[in-house]
Write a structure and sequence with these properties.
It is a single chain. 68% of the residues lie in helices and 0% in strands. The longest helix is centred in the middle third of the chain and has 27 residues. It has 1029 residues and is an all-alpha fold.
């Protein structure tokens, strides 16, 4: 069997083997994992002499490990395996005449096997495990731990045992947790003292001889300290060995792994969980403040700071130690059980450690800074909770805030906008966000300090700018502007000076002074692009400032008009968006400057559509770095909207507004006309050009007027003047021509639908005569269900907005419109996306009918022009109402359908001849429906569909929330039918429904006629269903 296994492994891992043979070999090895006898052959392959190849030995041990792991070995087999491996280990690692030592991968695998045996046998079967491996550390007859190979294997095993039974980062099953807890208890009772003594022996023997062993030992101490008695580590003998390693000098500036490991071990020792008083006592006893101060003053962290010799690994290790100490001190202070003496000691420790924390927080390397951010966050959060900040702590706030601000500055080696450094830039911006959180906390703790420090920073920067101009370091200007941008969170919490959550009046006053100084400083001419971008972002963020300082708007507008032409593509495209935001917000204040602006930015308006190449990058790009043609056009649209905003100010006469609109649109019409023949022939670039032009026309219209038909908001602008509507009617005609020619293109239909929704605001009721053309173009044979649903949503808005004027147009177009929709509803379903789109179309179709009924336009559904389609309309709603299959996804549509049927009953059923109340009277009179025969129609068709659904075994309102909603609507429809048909309906129920259900009907009638809330009747129906099923 051994030779078979060996051959199979050699074939499987030989890159030149035949693939068929390889496949057979892998199959055989896979079968071995479930063979209860295979482990013996595999152990033999691993231990035999002469040795097999390394891959054979590795795979053999892996098969053994699997056998232990899946518990396929009995106790006798485990002991047999123990003996075989212990003999091998002793002969290979425990004698002075050592055979060839295993490679690192083999030692790792062997350690894994021995650890699995430890877990299985330490409790019973290998109680001498620790002694057996300790014995390997000394040569026979020696009293020292002088067997280096044995020591290394021993330390490997100790590390693996911790990782297996005590690593808190590993998720374990409950039974494993219990088993591992028992093993730790046994280790503590039997062997931990020996193990800790062995660490002392190794550090004493190898402290100045073998850095590899010392480093391994320190790392093991760092691991084990979390679950053993701390006194085994914190004692004079152990500390006298570790402390010299922490402070070991290294004047070469090279890496010192032993010193780093010693610092990390200290970090784990300090981080061990214990009572608050013990924790404070330990930090004081270890004299950590002095140790860390000495490390900070050592050449690697002091003399070499700012040079290539600076030891960043040591800095990060010490920063981690400081972070752990600070977090523990804060935890002690926040613990309500902490006694006064301990609290006083902890307060002093906190005060003493803050300068050490700030040393690493201020480090030029962001990774080192980030290491202590968690504990600085804890410190500031603790300050925030104190009812009154003691003087000793308030004195620490200025250096903390100054350190936070200075970390927000770009360092000297960084550049801005360099594509090669995008990752560094992103990481720095992420760091700034974390620093912003800290800064906010300082503002909460001491608002006056925050306001003063930031105000002084910004004021001093502008003063230096006045003196040095463009010679000033851009990083300093960037820092001041970044802080100015953040300052608004205090000065204007809800994005408006003096808005809700009353902002600090002092901060608001300071911000106004900053803004005035910024606008007047000439900073908009600073040569660095980052400063230009900050300037524009701040102007937009604090738009409210200009509402009261209108004299400064002109200067900012001039700068914007210049900056939209900036050479840097990121600045240029971002400025288009920001310019749009600025003029849109200040539309009421900018005055009649449209002509100047249009002339100044007219060169940016020509559209140049570019079809993406096949090799176009499909990756998602951030807004800041995406310079593709599509992204640039998306930004260009903001210019069209900005022109619309600035051309339609109250100060601009209507005739001028129309003139400005014409001056922008005429070149677009000419361009559209020129590209239309090529687009008709299927030219992709020409089609994209027309798509872009249509989008631009719609966006321009939106800029001119964001009026929404039918809206009643107090902030709503009035409908557009006729002169302007006439101008945009030309745009609508041009778009409709393109739509008629190119409606097979989904991109063109999408653009036209977008333009249609935006043209509503400028066309007003002038859009109504064009509706048939819009419907014809946007609901073509090529239109998807998704497109139909979106267009129906737009039509809801049109019907609602123009309900008093739309009757004739709606009467003319309803039947062809619904025919298109029915076509979409009846299309076959292919896949999940189709199901989602169908559900959306059903919902929008039913909502559209509901909008017609709710806006007193029901007559259009039964007019002479649409009578022939009425039956199809009713059938479609009834069909959607009864479709409640669990896989149909139609329950929301069913709910809407029953709601519509109830609405129709109310509209066409005539006056109520019955009443529903706590004490109802008998129905009086005969039904008088608006449509002759509709009363019987209600009973025969509407009532019948209610009970088709109620009797459907798939309908289960007791367990399905959506079905319950459908039941509410059914209850409402049944009551609506009763109100309109009275006694006729009661007779029908008693002669047909109740006998079929096997009930006398008294409870049904009582619930139906007395439930003033349909939910009460719905509850009765639900209980009735439970009883009759």
């Amino acid at each position: 069997m051994e030779s078979q296994i060996e051959n199979a492994i050699e074939i499987a891992w030989n890159p030149t083997s035949d693939q068929a043979l390889k496949s057979q070999a892998f199959d055989y090895l896979h079968q071995l994992r479930s063979d209860p006898q295979a482990w013996q052959a595999c152990v033999s392959l691993f231990t035999r002499t002469p040795r097999t190849s390394e891959v054979v030995r590795l795979v053999s041990l892996e098969i053994v490990n699997n056998a232990i792991h899946v518990h396929s070995l009995d106790a006798q087999s485990l002991v047999s395996l123990r003996d075989a491996l212990l003999d091998y280990v002793r002969s290979t690692y425990g004698t002075s005449q050592q055979a060839e030592i295993d490679s690192s991968p083999l030692q790792n695998k062997l350690t894994q096997t021995l650890t699995l045996l430890f877990v299985s046998l330490y409790k019973q079967g290998w109680e001498t495990f620790t002694d057996d491996f300790l014995a390997l550390t000394s040569f026979p007859g020696s009293v020292q731990r002088d067997n280096i190979t044995g020591v290394i294997l021993y330390l490997r095993v100790l590390g693996a045992i911790h990782d297996e039974i005590a690593d808190v980062l590993l998720v374990r099953q409950d039974n494993q947790v219990r088993s591992h807890t028992e093993l730790k208890d046994l280790m503590r009772a039997r062997d931990v003292g020996k193990v800790a003594q062995s660490w002392q022996d190794l550090l004493a023997l190898y402290g100045n001889q073998n850095d590899g062993i010392v480093e391994m030992t320190l790392k093991i101490i760092g691991k084990w300290v979390s679950w053993i008695d701390i006194s085994l580590i914190i004692n004079e003998n152990m500390l006298s060995l570790i402390l010299p390693l922490v402070g070991r000098s290294n004047n070469t500036g090279g890496e010192d792994k032993v010193r780093d490991a010693a610092v990390e071990a200290f970090t784990e020792i300090v981080g061990k969980k214990m009572r608050p008083a013990d924790k404070t006592e330990m930090i004081s006893f270890l004299n950590l403040q002095s140790i860390i101060s000495q490390l900070i003053a050592s050449p690697p962290l002091n003399e070499f700071k700012g040079t290539p010799k600076y030891d960043t690994d040591l800095a990060e290790a010490v920063a981690k130690l400081v972070n752990t100490v600070m977090a523990d001190i804060v935890r002690v202070l926040e613990d309500r059980s902490t006694d006064d003496t301990t609290r006083a000691k902890s307060n002093q420790l906190l005060h003493d450690f803050i300068p050490l924390l700030l040393r690493f927080f201020s480090d030029e390397y962001d990774e080192i800074c980030a290491t202590v951010i968690p504990s600085l966050t804890d410190v500031l959060a603790y300050f925030r909770k104190l009812p009154e900040l003691p003087t000793s702590f308030s004195e620490t706030l200025p250096p903390i805030l100054n350190a936070i601000i200075m970390k927000m500055r770009y360092d000297e080696t960084s550049s801005w906008g360099n594509e090669d450094e995008q990752t560094d830039e992103a990481e720095f911006q992420e760091l700034r966000k974390r620093l912003q959180v800290l800064q906010k906390t300082v503002a909460v703790v001491d608002q006056n300090l925050y306001v003063d420090v930031l105000t002084n920073l910004v004021a001093n920067t502008f003063q230096t700018l006045d003196e040095r101009g463009s010679q000033m370091d851009w990083r300093d200007v960037d820092l001041a502007l970044h802080e100015m941008y953040l300052f608004g969170e205090l000065a204007m919490p809800n994005q408006g000076l003096g808005a809700k959550n009353q902002p600090s009046p002092v901060a608001s006053e300071r911000l106004m002074a900053m803004m005035t100084k910024m606008v007047q400083s000439g900073i908009a001419n600073f040569p660095h692009p980052a400063i230009i971008l900050h300037y524009m972002e701040i102007c937009v963020r604090y738009c409210a400032f200009f509402e009261s300082q209108t004299s400064l708007i002109g200067q900012v507008l001039e700068n914007f008009v210049r900056l939209v032409h900036h050479d840097h593509v990121r600045i240029r495209t971002r400025s288009w968006y920001l310019f749009h935001r600025f003029v849109k917000h200040l539309r009421a204040q900018v005055g009649n400057v449209a002509e100047t602006v249009i002339q100044s930015i007219g060169d940016l308006l020509p559209i140049h559509a570019e079809v993406p190449g096949e090799d176009a990058d499909d990756d998602m790009s951030s807004d800041q770095t995406d310079n593709s043609a599509d992204a640039i056009f998306a930004s260009q649209l903001y210019l069209f909207e900005a022109i619309g905003c600035i051309s339609s100010t109250a100060a601009t006469p209507v005739e001028k507004q129309a003139l400005y609109a014409r001056s922008v649109m005429d070149p677009l019409f000419t361009d559209m006309e020129r590209h239309l023949p090529r687009a008709r022939a299927g030219d992709a670039q020409a089609i994209l050009q027309i798509h872009h032009i249509i989008m631009a026309l719609g966006t321009l219209a939106h800029g001119f007027s964001d009026w929404t038909p039918g809206a009643n908001s107090a902030n709503q602008r009035p409908p557009p003047a006729k002169a302007l509507s006439d101008e945009f009617a030309r745009a609508a005609e041009a778009i409709l021509i393109s739509l008629g020619e190119l409606n097979s293109s989904s991109e063109i239909r999408t653009a036209c639908r977008s333009a249609f929704s935006r043209l509503l605001g400028v066309l007003g009721s002038a859009v109504l005569p064009q509706l048939p053309q819009w419907i014809d173009g946007l609901l073509s044979r090529s239109s998807s269900k998704d497109e139909m649903a979106m267009f129906l949503r737009l039509l809801d808005q049109v019907v609602y907005g123009f309900k008093t004027e739309i009757y004739e147009v709606l009467n003319q177009l309803l039947t062809p419109l619904l025919q298109r929709v029915f076509g979409g509803l009846s299309e076959p379903i292919n896949g999940t996306d189709d199901e989602i789109q169908l559900a959306e179309l059903r919902r929008e179709y039913l909502t559209f009918i509901g909008v017609i009924l709710n806006n007193d336009l029901a007559g259009v559904l039964v007019s002479e022009a649409n009578q022939g389609f009425f039956e199809s309309l009713i059938n479609s709603i009834l069909t959607l109402a009864r479709d409640i299959g669990p896989g149909s996804g139609n329950l929301p549509a069913s709910r809407l359908s029953f709601g519509l049927l109830a609405k129709m009953a109310g509209v066409w059923g005539g006056p109520d001849i019955a009443n529903i109340s706590a004490n109802p009277s008998a129905p009086t009179g005969s039904p008088s429906p608006v449509i002759p025969g509709f009363d019987q129609f209600l009973i025969d068709r509407f009532h019948s569909v209610c009970w088709e659904v109620l009797r459907d075994p798939q309908f289960n309102p007791s367990s399905d929330a959506q079905a319950k909603q459908v039941l509410h609507e059914i209850a409402g429809l049944e009551q609506a039918i009763y109100l309109k048909t009275g006694e006729v309906f009661l007779q029908h129920l008693q002669s047909t429904l109740f006998p079929g259900l096997g009930i006398d009907g008294n409870d049904f009638l009582r619930a139906m006629t007395t439930s003033t809330d349909k939910k009460s009747f719905s509850k009765y129906l639900q209980s009735l269903l439970s009883n009759i099923r």
